[in-house]
Each structure stands twice: as structure tokens, then as C-alpha cells.
């Protein structure tokens, strides 16, 4: 097992020095899901929620959050993102919405945290907009699907 990189030799937390790392094209894909009551799902799917376009606002919130990741996660490097896409898939059988984010940059460190942050904030935005009608919504299964670029190369969940 590799050592935790955010601690120095004396055990103190620090920001990892990426100054000597090569700039490579880096991609991360992350996902997560929110499950709700069927009535809540139907309202969101139909676009009849009184607060407006829940899915459109969640998409923008997630993308915006990806750009603010280093402001939220203390030891995360600020990145110049080159692309972020956020897809929301509706599942009427489960009354759930799955969020999938693809984040990209060219730089010395990965974009996993940006993709994961975007997923979480998009799901939180859905919760925030629909909590007046359903406080029991459950967010979960947030995880990295894959990443590429950098010294560690490619990684895929389940491999």
C-alpha cells in the first residue's frame, strides 16, 4: 500500500509539491445517485417544481463546484480545468437520479476531487430544491469510476 501523500515525514498535514511533476492530459469520471419518493421524482421529471428547472440548476451547480474544489478541500491544488461535463440520468423505476461527471485538465495533478465534488454538489442541489416536498431523499454511491493521466496512469473501478 502506498503512503498517504498529504503528510510529511513528521506526520504533519501539508500540500503535496507538484512543481516537478510533468503536465499531462488528465481525466476523471465520477458518479453518485439520489433516491426520492415517486411523487418527488415525477415533479422533477415533469419540470413542474415551483422552484424551476431542478436538473438544469443542479447541472450548473455541479460544474460551478468543480471550479471551486480547492476552496472547499483544504489541501487540494487549484486547477485550470479544460472541460467539465455533467450528465443527469433519471430512473423512474427506482425514483432516482444518477449524476455522472467528467472533468479534464492538462497539468501536474489529477482531477478526481473536482469530479467527485461536482457530483456531490449536483446531488445536494437536487436535495435543496426538492426538500420542501421530500426531506427523506437519500444520496449515496458516490465514487470515482475512472481516472487517467499522470504517473499512476489509468485506473478503473473494479479492476
Question: How would you describe this structure to a colleague?
Answer:
The structure is a single chain. By secondary structure, the protein is of the alpha+beta class. The protein is built from 4 helices and 5 strands; from the N terminus they run E-H-H-H-E-E-H-E-E. A 5-stranded antiparallel β-sheet has the order 2-3-1-4-5, covered by helices on one side. Helix 2 runs antiparallel to helix 4. The longest helix has 19 residues, at 112-130.
Please give the structural blueprint.
Layout: E1 24-35, H1 38-46, H2 54-67, H3 69-72, E2 81-91, E3 96-107, H4 112-130, E4 138-148, E5 155-156
Antiparallel strand pairs: 1-3, 1-4, 2-3, 4-5
Helix pairs in contact: 2-4
Short recap of the structure:
The protein contains four helices and five strands; from the N terminus they run βαααββαββ. By secondary structure, the protein is an alpha+beta fold.
Q: Considering DSSP H and I runs of 4 or more, what fraction of the residues is helical?
A: 25-40%
- Alpha-beta content class: alpha+beta
Helices, by number, come to 4
- Number of strand elements: 5
Amino acid at each position: 500500500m502506498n503512503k498517504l501523500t498529504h503528510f510529511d515525514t513528521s506526520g504533519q498535514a501539508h500540500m503535496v509539491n507538484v512543481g516537478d511533476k510533468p503536465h499531462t492530459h488528465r481525466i476523471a469520471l465520477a458518479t453518485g445517485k439520489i433516491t426520492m419518493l415517486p411523487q418527488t421524482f415525477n415533479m422533477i421529471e415533469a419540470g413542474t417544481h415551483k422552484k424551476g428547472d431542478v436538473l438544469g440548476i443542479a447541472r450548473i451547480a455541479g460544474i460551478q463546484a468543480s471550479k471551486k474544489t480547492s476552496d472547499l478541500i483544504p489541501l487540494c491544488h487549484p486547477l485550470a480545468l479544460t472541460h467539465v461535463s455533467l450528465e443527469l440520468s433519471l430512473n423512474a423505476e427506482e425514483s432516482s437520479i444518477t449524476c455522472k461527471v467528467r472533468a479534464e485538465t492538462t497539468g501536474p495533478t489529477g482531477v478526481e476531487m473536482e469530479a467527485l465534488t461536482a457530483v456531490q454538489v449536483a446531488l445536494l442541489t437536487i436535495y435543496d430544491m426538492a426538500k420542501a416536498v421530500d426531506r427523506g431523499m437519500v444520496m449515496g454511491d458516490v465514487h470515482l469510476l475512472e481516472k487517467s493521466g499522470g504517473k499512476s496512469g489509468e485506473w478503473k473501478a473494479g479492476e
